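Researcher: We're teaching a course module on how sequence relates to structure. For the next exercise, students receive a sequence and then see the predicted structure as tokens, so they can try to spot secondary structure elements on their own. Here is the exercise chain.
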Amino acid sequence: MRQRLLPGLQGLGFEPLPGTLVAAAADGVFWMLDLDIAPWSTPKRVCFGVSWGVYVPGIHAAMGEFDPVHPSVDTCAVQGRLGEHQGRIEPAWFEVKAQPWPISALADASTARSVLARVAAEVVPIFDLLANPAAVQDHLYEHLEPSRGIPDESELFTISRIAAISVLRGERENAARWLDHLAARSEAAMSPELVATKLATLRQHLIAS
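Model: And here is the predicted structure for the students to work with:
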């Protein structure tokens, strides 16, 4: 199926990239697409979905983490799956069955066309709105869902990425505010000493910027 999809994805401006299916460079970010194989797949019936993400170079180093050698959707600041949208949590799944030739070739081609059509209609417009680090930062802020109690991993992840992008963009005051907010929220879940250690690298980048 990957080989069936590549020509159409290249027509949309994407190119193969190690670590993911394809990627496309925008203004300081990379748009990524990959295939996810469903755990209930069998040798005769493979179900797969399409995941997407927007990768911001340097964001991991700003957080004191290792920059991935081969970025993937899992390392993206913003992630999603084809078919997921407001009001619908379950992503879209596609199916490839083991069938005799030429039925299998026709079925695979039909599935590939369906996937490409939905990527073009549903994912590419999202990418167009996330064309640079500033747009990614705005998206993260708009989708931040703070809680009053102990923060969950998603909240801390989002705040840390907003702060890191502020550092990368040279927004010292904004980055400092988000770092203080991240520290306050993190201390609701762990000791102040551990929080200070975790945020030390990001604060160093802020001072140096």
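Model: If you want an answer key for the exercise: The beta strands are 15-17, 20-25, 30-37, 45-55, 78-81, 94-97. The longest helix spans residues 103-129.
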